[in-house]
Amino acid sequence: MAPNNDKLFTADDSELWDLFRDGDEVAYTQLIQKYSKPLFNYGYRIYQDKDFLKDCIQDVFLELWNRRLRISPTPAVKWYLFKAIRLRIFREQSKWNRSEALDESYEFLVEFNIESKMIIDLETITLSSRIQQVLNALPPRQREIMYLRFYENLDFDNIAQIMEISKQSVHNLLQKAYKNFRAEWVVLIIAFSNLNL
Amino acid sequence: MNLFQVTNYTNYEVEDFLHDDFFIDWVLKNQPHHQAFWEQWLAENPGRKKTVDQARAIILAIRVNPLTEELTNAEVNAMATNIYQQAIEQYEPAVIKQRFYQTGWFRVAATVILVAGAGFLFFKKYRQPVSSQADPFLQVINHTPKSKLVRMSDGSLAVLKPGSGLKYLRSFHDKREVFLDGEAFFEIHKNPQMPFRVHSHDMVVQVLGTSFTVTSRRNNQNFKVVVNTGKVLVYNQKEVTKEGKRQHEVILTPNQQVTVADKQLSFKKETLAIPLTLSKEMAQKEFTFDNAPLSAVIDRINKDYDVNIEYDKAKLGSISLTISISDRPLDEKVKLICKAINATCQFIDGRIIINGQNPNPIPTN
User: Between chains, do B15 and A149 touch, taking CB under 8 Å as contact?
Assistant: First the structure.
């Protein structure tokens, strides 16, 4: 798994969050420093306009500050922010750019890659490139789930909240994705088995 | 997160593990409770080890290729400064909310050079009796040997060079028009509904959606505009036809300049070989300071804006600060620096003054 830039829900995060809710300006700045990049990285996959996204991120954090007294002591800072940025991107886009409003047919820009360093033999490298193709051929919403789960390390509960769908829908979407995979996984698994013997 | 207790993993195949939250959490987060559970489970189900290893290997091998666009550290710092500033000061009405996208601050530097004498006529013509508070215009003429800072009602700024004059509306209600004689650097607050125009004799420099800077030299034969950031439109108002069509209009983008030789109203547009220090790409580097002494920060601003910030160098000069202020207009830059060192500042009569540090920390909120 790609090492993300932070560990989730660590003591640091909930500590920061509590300080921030008490109006600690340093904690607030640290939250901004810590999450601006991941938020941009996620948002850009939905809508590719750098300045627009900077604005969205800025608004998310301003709103956060204004609402700090009403925000629960959630340790899940990350999903809270991801949900906020996603909501804002969709809302602001339809407001400012009616002609090309984002809807459920949005693209999710992501390119998955199976790390070939971990795979030694030629056969498995071939297989991994096939797996990669399947991953990259998934429909946008499934790609988004994969991204949030495997890259951002958010659990399915959080993903459902971020994407504003039920947890069941997340699982249904995943089932669909894995159905596509199954055949490919099985072959890959055999290759891995050989490797691990 | 504790649902695993009721999950029966014995029949799980690789693809099942791949959409099991608890399993993925173990692989990716590996917190003690995950580790304890899976160690025990594997001890009880030795036959499943291979499947588990395979699922693990796959999860660990998934990568996401980097995007072509990313936020740089400098951008994150600038955003943090900006957001912080707005969050803390948003209830102060004097602070103009800064947005990157819809109403960003942009800077343009322009030099306007006029025919000798024209400027005197201009100011005579527009000079109002000193008396009335009702005069909608304010006028600043810089007789000092140093540049003066002019702050207008919408938050826009002009750095007025020695020997130059600027006339502007006390408040910009329905239009933003200023008259310049001499040379000035402008930082204009963006407002698409109300374009900002600098008139310099017959020449007009108009900010297109962003902002601009204008300067004019009284005793020269040439009119010149240089753009640092943003986008401006330059035209001669004498050449505007009744239908509002302009001849010879020129659009300038950063690091471009236009010169107009008197009498021959042809525009000469050039791109500068070296980017200006206040252009976006340079400013980001120039105005990001990491543990720099205050004196270095002030020197940088003084040099790039051609101003003279007054402060107690002996007392404050060596305070070190880490700050990123490239996206801010001049007065906001100074305010942010003061905030960082817990000092106060004043903008009086075109002077910029930083007062000593406040012995008592300002309470937050």
Answer: no
Find the mean pLDDT for residues A137-152.
89
The CATH code belonging to domain B96-271 is 2.60.120.1440
With beta carbons under 8 A apart, name residues in chain A contacting B61: 1, 114-115, 118-119, 128
Are B244 and B127 in contact, with CB atoms under 8 Å apart? Answer: no
Closest to B59 (Cα-Cα) out of B9, B19, B31:
B19
Domain range A116-196, CATH architecture: Orthogonal Bundle (1.10)
CA distance B32 to chain A (A): 13
Tell me which DSSP letter residue B110 carries.
E
pLDDT digits (tens, 9 = 90+) for A114-129: 776 665 555 556 656 7
Contacts within 8 Å (CB) and 24+ apart, B118-125: B118/B181, B118/B201, B118/B218, B119/B165, B119/B181, B119/B182, B119/B201, B119/B216, B119/B218, B120/B218, B122/B179, B122/B181, B122/B201, B123/B165, B123/B167, B123/B181
* Residue B267 pLDDT grade (very low, low, confident, very high; cuts 50, 70, 90): low
CATH 3.30.830.10, domain B280-357, yes or no:
no
Q: What is the mean pLDDT of chain A?
A: 77
Selected residue with higher pLDDT from B108 and B340: B340
- Measured distance CA(B271)–CA(B254) in Å, rounded: 9
Q: Comparing A87-91, B117-121, B290-294, which segment has the lowest mean pLDDT?
A: B117-121
List Cα–Cα distances, B309 to B280, B336, B346, B351, in angstroms: 22, 14, 10, 7
- Cβ count near B363 (within 10 Å): 5
Strand partners, B235: B204
| Rounded average pLDDT over B75-98 | 65
- Asked if residues B261 and B222 have their Cβ atoms less than 8 Å apart, the reply is yes
Q: Which residues of B fall within a CB distance of 8 Å from A157? A: 21
Per-residue pLDDT at A78 exceeds 80 = yes
Highest mean pLDDT: which range of A6-10, B103-107, B202-206, B290-294: B290-294
Element containing residue B109 per DSSP (H, E): strand B105-110
CB pair distance less than 8 Å for B54 and A45? no
pTM for this model (two decimals): 0.50
Coil/strand/helix, residue A49: coil
Strands B148-151 and B105-110, sheet pairing: unpaired
What one-letter code names the amino acid at B81? T
**Interchain contact, B50 vs A196, CB within 8 Å:** yes
Alpha-carbon Rg for chain A in angstroms: 19
Asked if the Cβ–Cβ distance from B86 to A58 is below 8 Å, we say yes
Domain coordinates in residue numbering, chain B: 3-61, 96-271, 280-357
- The rounded distance, in Å, linking the Cα atoms of B46 and B23 is 17
Q: Do domains B96-271 and B280-357 have the same CATH topology?
A: no
Nearest residue to B150 via CA among B121, B182, B126, B128: B182
CATH of A11-100, one of 1.10.260.40, 3.50.50.60, 1.10.10.10, 1.10.1740.10: 1.10.1740.10
Mean pLDDT, rounded, for B330-355: 86
Instruction: With CB atoms and an 8 Å threshold, state whether B67 touches A41.
Output: yes
